[in-house]
Every structure is written in structure tokens, then in C-alpha cells.
């Protein structure tokens, strides 16, 4: 049996449903690849999401993801010298990137929501919300 993933990318700006709030500081800048990539082989199903996030005031930003209402998981930081070079007066955090693989092999069939967001301790920005439907095919 295989899992087929159909991606419906949706930018959801309803922070209250996630318990996320945005403060007046608004200092987090971010970018996420337009279309998350994935490999969907039985036993190796995963979603890959890449991008970067930083705070214009120099505060460390970390990225997290959550599936449905599950636990928050910190994404592994990745060095992005290209971002530091592109924003020399704003980005001082060299590990501002992320290239996260999220396992979906153990998810039940049906629709699941993936939330990917950036936090600096005072502010949280929802970078991307993705709704995936996993179907079993004979």
C-alpha cells in the first residue's frame, strides 16, 4: 500500500486557533520555499520544508513545526550565509536557515495540518500552514 499526498498550500493567518500571537515589535523576517517537497515511499514518507527566518534586531530566532494539535518540535537550524549576505544590516544570525524533514509515515489516513512558525521569545510568526490529505490506494 502507498500513501499519496495531495498538497493544498494555504496561508492561514488565524493565529488564535494556534495559540499564536503577534506583538507590536514585528521584527521577524522569513521566507519559505513556495512548494514543500517530499518523497512518498512506503516506510519513508516525509515532507521537506526549507527556508530562513531572522530577527531584524539581532534576537535569536528558532523555527518550529507542529502536526495537527501535537507537540511543538524545533526545526534543526542550518547556516545560511546567503541570507546574511543578502541582508547585511538586518541579519546577524548565521544559522537562520532550516531544511526540515518531517516524517509522515506514521500518520493515519485522512487530512492533517502542518504548522511551521518562527519564534524569537517575544514574537511568533506563522510562516506556513499546509493541509495534506493522505489516502490509501490498493
Care to describe what's here?
The strands form 2 sheets. A 5-stranded antiparallel sheet has the order 1-10-9-5-6, with no helix packed on it. Strands 2, 3, 4, 7 and 8 form a 5-stranded antiparallel sheet that branches. By secondary structure, it is mainly beta. The protein is elongated and about 50 Å long. The protein has 1 helix and 10 strands. Helix content is 4%, strand content 49%. Strand 9 and strand 10 form a beta hairpin. The N terminus is likely disordered.
Task: Give a quick summary of the entry.
The protein is mostly beta strands and 138 residues long. It has one helix spanning 81-86, and strands at 2-10, 28-32, 37-39, 46-55, 62-67, 73-74, 77-78, 97-103, 110-119, 124-137.
**What does the radius of gyration come to?**
16 Å
Note the overall shape: elongated
Count of individual helical segments: 1
Classify the helix fraction into a percent range: under 10%
Describe the oligomeric state of these chains in a short phrase. Answer: single chain
**Taking all residues together, what is the mean pLDDT?**
75
